[in-house]
Structures are given as structure tokens and as C-alpha cells.
């Protein structure tokens, strides 16, 4: 047992893997979390969930579960709702907050109502897209939102199914790619500027924003490969933006985190335009925690020990 603030943690189950499109990333996140917790002296079991998971957890409940499942299996609220239902503490946002953040159009609407700028967009379900006629939809989009655009699945992460549309002729292919990953596509005005991510952690004393991480992919697009292949993206911590702009971005991230009802940890992705306005893109209830991920970079830049933070988040989950 390791000394820490609040509740004791003897046994943690880290869930990683699953069956989503982001399985490989989840396994990397899970291993990194487990290794950090073990280095901090905690007993950790790394579990790839299957049909026997709930029975196993109910028969031998751990002190806390750490869901390191990226994609729908860990971020859409279903697993979290079941853990709430059977009374097992877990790290991260509760089911309701996860559902809101998982759906990008919903998260954008909530952030906008809280006063955070977000790019103009439209969400189009696959069936409505077909019924209304693709050509008519493309014409309306082109008239109302000139290129460049970003087309992405309304739900999902790791930039899978995301396309930067520079020419109207590219829009049909982009829609097909987005629909490969889900039934709803989000078409969003692309904002030119500096891409940043702001992590938020809360170990029990309220949410705290970490230094903004600036993202500079060498290819110009922060794709799946640019996220998870070392050397394909440059990161700057803190971001190379004015202090006053950074303060506004931090407030935007904290506002979004609170408005969505998130808990323990999140990452808010923003674009800062040339005028210094941060634009909300999305919020992640399970930020990547791999060796190339943004939240660990921000934690280390802020002087935190990863194992200590992860252990404190586990204790916060038990106290909740």
C-alpha cells in the first residue's frame, strides 16, 4: 500500500483493448497506465474485457477500475453506466458526461451555450443524407460553408475517418470515409490557426488545467499516423501563443469540462485563430496516455509524476 491523500488503493483493474477501431491505441494506453501505477507501488491487473468481465468484477471487486478503453467501448458511457450500476468505483467521467462528450455535435452545442466559440457545422445522418439527395446536400454545404472544411464521424477518436476538404469535389469521398466509422457525419468549417490541446485533471480539489500543448504535424494534418508514430509530429509545451491568449484558452477548456459534466481527467482540443480566439473542437473523456500522447506530455511539463497523478485519480474515484 502506498501513502497518498485520502482513500487507500490496494488493487486496480485497468481495462484495455476491447473491440473498437482504437483497440491497438487502447492497449498502449492501458500498458502505460498500468506500468506507471506499478512503478508507484500499486497492485494492478491489466484486463482485456470480454463477455466474462462483469461477472468477474462482481465476484471479486477491485478497489477501483481504470477504463483505458478508447472508442465506443470505453467512451460512449455504456461501460461507465454499468460500473455505476453495480457499484464499482472507476476513474474518469460518469456515464452522463461521457455520453455528452462522445457525441461531437452535442458537445459543441453544450460548449457554445456555455459561451465557448466553436466552428460552424452541420451533422448529417446517413439515412437523411440519402433521403434528401446527396447533390442537394453538397450544394447547400458549398453555399453556406465554403472550403476548407473538416469532415469527421460524429462519434469516435484518433482522427479515424477524418478528412480535410480543400475542394468541393472532395466532399463526397470525405462523407463516405466518415460514414465508414458511424451513421452520422459532422461537416465543420475549418479554422486556420494553431492547434492546441489542454488537459484537465481533478484529484479532488476541483479541475486544474495543464499547460497547453501545441501540435505541429509534419504532414500538416494531425492524422492517426501523426498521433501515434513517433517523430511525425512536433509538440511544444507550453504552446507558442501569447500568455493572454493561453489564459483565454485555459478558461475555454475549463468551461467546456464543467459544462459537459466531466470528471477526473479530460482533454479539450481547440484551434486558436489569428485573432487569438480559441475555438472548441471536441472534448475527450479518455485522453490518449501512450508514449506519444498529449496529456502525459502536459503532466510532465507541469512537473507532475505520472504514477502519482494516476494513483491520486484512483483515490479520487474511491472517495467519490
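-> sequence recovered:
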Amino acid at each position: 500500500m502506498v501513502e497518498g491523500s485520502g482513500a487507500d488503493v490496494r488493487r486496480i483493474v485497468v481495462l484495455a483493448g476491447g473491440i473498437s477501431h482504437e483497440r491497438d491505441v487502447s492497449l498502449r494506453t492501458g500498458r502505460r497506465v498500468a506500468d506507471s501505477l506499478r512503478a508507484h507501488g500499486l497492485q494492478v491487473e491489466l484486463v482485456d474485457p470480454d463477455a466474462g468481465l462483469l461477472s468477474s468484477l462482481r465476484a471479486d471487486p477491485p478497489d477501483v477500475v481504470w477504463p483505458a478503453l478508447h472508442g465506443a467501448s470505453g467512451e460512449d458511457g455504456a461501460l461507465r453506466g454499468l460500473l455505476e450500476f453495480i457499484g464499482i468505483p472507476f476513474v474518469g467521467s460518469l456515464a452522463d458526461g461521457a455520453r455528452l462528450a462522445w457525441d461531437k455535435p452535442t458537445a459543441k452545442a453544450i460548449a457554445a451555450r456555455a459561451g465557448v466559440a466553436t466552428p460552424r457545422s452541420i451533422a448529417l445522418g446517413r439515412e437523411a443524407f440519402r433521403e434528401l439527395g446527396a447533390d442537394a446536400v453538397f450544394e447547400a454545404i458549398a453555399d453556406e460553408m465554403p472550403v476548407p472544411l473538416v469532415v469527421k464521424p460524429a462519434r469516435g477518436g484518433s482522427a479515424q475517418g477524418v478528412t480535410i476538404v480543400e475542394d468541393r469535389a472532395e466532399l463526397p469521398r470525405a462523407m463516405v470515409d466518415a460514414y465508414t466509422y458511424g451513421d452520422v457525419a459532422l461537416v465543420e468549417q475549418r479554422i486556420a490557426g494553431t492547434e492546441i490541446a489542454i488537459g484537465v485533471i481533478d484529484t479532488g480539489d476541483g479541475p486544474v488545467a495543464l499547460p497547453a500543448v501545441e501540435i505541429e504535424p509534419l504532414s500538416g494534418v494531425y492524422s492517426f499516423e501523426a498521433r501515434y508514430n513517433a517523430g511525425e509530429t512536433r509538440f511544444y509545451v507550453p504552446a507558442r501563443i501569447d500568455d493572454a491568449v493561453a489564459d483565454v484558452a485555459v478558461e475555454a477548456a475549463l468551461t467546456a469540462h464543467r459544462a459537459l459534466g466531466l470528471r477526473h481527467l479530460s482533454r479539450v482540443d481547440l484551434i486558436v485563430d489569428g485573432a487569438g480566439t480559441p475555438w472548441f473542437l471536441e472534448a475527450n473523456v479518455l485522453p490518449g496516455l501512450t508514449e506519444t500522447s498529449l496529456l502525459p506530455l502536459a503532466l510532465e511539463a507541469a512537473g507532475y509524476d505520472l504514477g502519482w497523478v494516476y494513483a491520486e485519480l484512483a483515490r479520487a474515484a474511491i472517495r467519490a
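Residues 23-39 form the longest helix (17 residues).
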